[in-house]
Amino acid sequence: MSTVTSTESKDLAPVSTETLTALLVAKERPPRPSSLSTSLTFGWRAMLKIKHVPEQLFDVTAFPIMNLLMFTYLFGGALAGSPDDYIQFVLPGILVMSVVMITMYTGVSVNIDIEKGVFDRFRSLPIWRPSAMVGYLLGDALRYTIASVVMLAMGLLLGYRADGGFVGVVAGIALLLVFSFAFSWIWTMFGLMLRTEKSVMSVSMMVIFPLTFLSNVFVDPRTMPGWLQAFVNNSPVTHLASAVRGLMAGDWPADEIAWTLGWSGLFVVVFGPVTMRLYNRK
Amino acid sequence: MSTHSSGPAIETVGLVKTFGETRAVDGVDLTVPAGTVYGVLGPNGAGKTTTVKMLATLLRPDGGEARVFGHDVVHEADEVRGRVSLTGQYASVDEDLTGTENLILLARLLGHRKPTARTRAAQLLEAFGLTEAAGKQVKHYSGGMRRRIDIAASILNTPDLLFLDEPTTGLDPRSRNQVWDIVRAVVAQGTTVLLTTQYLDEADQLASRIAVIDRGRVIAEGTKGELKASVGAGSVHLRLRDADRRPEAERLLRELLVAEVQPEPDPVALTARLSAATSDSAAEQAARALGELTRAGITVDNFSLGQPSLDEVFMALTGREAGPATGRDAGTDTDTDAKDEVAA
């Protein structure tokens, strides 16, 4: 791999102090960028990282396909008579579950990234403080979109038909992205709070598994014991899954959409400031 | 910078930062005049980086006050951030991105429009001799290249104050000299530089004023000349032919030079620290000492006259070696000694 070995300084072109001096003389400063602009710039950074390490898209392509195939054929016969019937019910749910599960990688990447020196530089810039975190989530939104498109394509191949048509499907995915963006502030918090990526991963698992499985993604909650129904019916993932399922089926379930947006708002309001507090202290 | 000539670039009073039980910074008072290179010298763990992080608004002080161009680092953090740039001990750019991408990213964050950001990035890469490596991910850069891209990232907007936190740690002598050239070019344009280093020769080369920090405290502060004068005018190193005559030579030198004379581990070697109190120059004092030894019949095999090095300054101030600072590579500490070897 001689192409990537670092070149030693003897091969380096010399520093041109004249050019440098000319550059330094220009002392004009551009006006302070807006918070939207800096957030988008950090989002661009996340895209560049995907460009340089495309392998990281594995979890938004292979993992959702695996989920979809596994659960459709594992439970389909038992729960709905046949996989073909089950997929009509389960696809929006698995879409929700997979994307919400993928959000947890945000915490891990924040945790790894924040230890690098570049964060000291970001934090010493005169910019809107949360933009680095918002940038992550914007980059992640792209990943979630990829995951959603992959799963829908796979679902169509397996026989899923969305009665809501293109508009319903796009609206469902948009709602899912909004929720994921808001929900991810939990992960940025853990990513900054916990010391190692391993601990971030294990805490995330502890949160994500009960939250996604204890919902109406796979089965109708009416088959569950009363105490579990109480939890499941009030879980944000249940509201989200119902809303997405409704939108894709062509209904516009206003109450479920409202619940989902309400939960999203709550996540941002609670975990956003905690994340920023941790970020400023890091 | 003309706009700031009225006050110092940095002013701290009783700055304190504790981590648990450790007082990493324990009451630091600094006044850094604008437009100069100010050296903060100290061994590993002395509190240099912690001090810089507080001044760059990355850490909140636990006590005391710090102002950068008159702005409080806690309450007016944004004003401070708008004027300073930070270059860490580590290459603080994104390793996964290319050189160009890093510079464009930071230029955009500083508010430059896309075309300007691109131009500025290309110009800086060219000035730093990195055009060829511009499209490579920074993780494939050599140590010297990383330091360059890091400094380039710090001067995308010419800062009023640049923090250079151990900018040459781990670099080979050639790359180190190139970094020094860059620093000199930056200062020549009016930027104030706060340089932290554990290398005495580096502070000697670049800084006009130096604060020596040890265990979170400033133990000495002044111009290079003042610091050196505080430990004497220099020292004479002698090697005698006959180890038996050393005690006699030691006594003679002590009487004659009114100097502190130390026997070295080598049984024939002696070091006399010359006094700065007399009007005689170090060379005159040394010549007199040589004559006296010859008259007493003590043969001197080898003789050298050394300027006091900052190593000696550190030794004189703390009574111990400058810790890990001298461990970089054997020989650098004597480079600045400017010894005139004379065979006797």
UniProtKB/TrEMBL annotation, chain A:
Record keywords, A-Z: Antibiotic resistance, Cell membrane, Membrane, Transmembrane, Transmembrane helix, Transport
Provide the topology term for how it sits in the membrane. Multi-pass membrane protein
Transport: is it a keyword of this entry? yes
Cell location:
Cell membrane; Membrane
Output the superkingdom of the source species. Answer: Bacteria
A GO-annotated cellular component: ATP-binding cassette (ABC) transporter complex
Concerning PROSITE patterns, the annotation shows:
ABC_TM2 (PS51012)
Where in the sequence is the signal peptide annotated? Answer: none
As one GO molecular function, the record gives: ABC-type transporter activity
Instruction: Name the GO terms of the biological process aspect.
Output: response to antibiotic
**Which segments constitute the ABC transmembrane type-2 domain?**
55-282
Q: Does the keyword Transmembrane helix apply?
A: yes
Q: Where are the transmembrane segments?
A: 57-80, 86-112, 133-160, 166-187, 199-219, 257-279
What PANTHER family does this protein's entry cite?
A: NODULATION PROTEIN J (PTHR43229:SF2)
Homology family:
Belongs to the ABC-2 integral membrane protein family.
Protein name, entry field: Transport permease protein
In its UniProt entry, the species of origin is given as Streptomyces pilosus
UniProtKB/TrEMBL annotation, chain B:
Q: Which SMART domains match?
A: AAA
Instruction: State which residue ranges cross the membrane.
Output: none
What residue spans carry the region label Disordered? 320-344
Q: Which UniProt keywords apply?
A: Antibiotic resistance, ATP-binding, Cell membrane, Membrane, Nucleotide-binding, Translocase, Transport
One GO BP annotation of this record: daunorubicin transport
Query: What's the family?
Result: Belongs to the ABC transporter superfamily. Drug exporter-1 (DrugE1) (TC 3.A.1.105) family.
Q: What is this protein called?
A: ABC-type xenobiotic transporter
> From which organism does this entry originate?
Streptomyces pilosus
